[in-house]
Predict the structure.
Amino acid sequence: MKTLSVCVGSSCHLKGAYEVIRELQRLLQEHQLQGQVELKATFCLGRCQSGVTLELDGVLYTSITKENVGKFFNQWILTK
């Protein structure tokens, strides 16, 4: 099972972290991956200046937005 953590610390929250989470939830449901990817909120991943930060199996991804999270999802969730 993959673990996908979304930072919801102050900076990421203000930059749309909860919109990113909602979009990821929608994509997981659409692709029927709820049992294969654990999605969780976490506090500060230490990249506050870089926009919303995700951690997927120990690797950090920065500057995630509601608009580009689909590209991230396709590249790192669907193809791995």
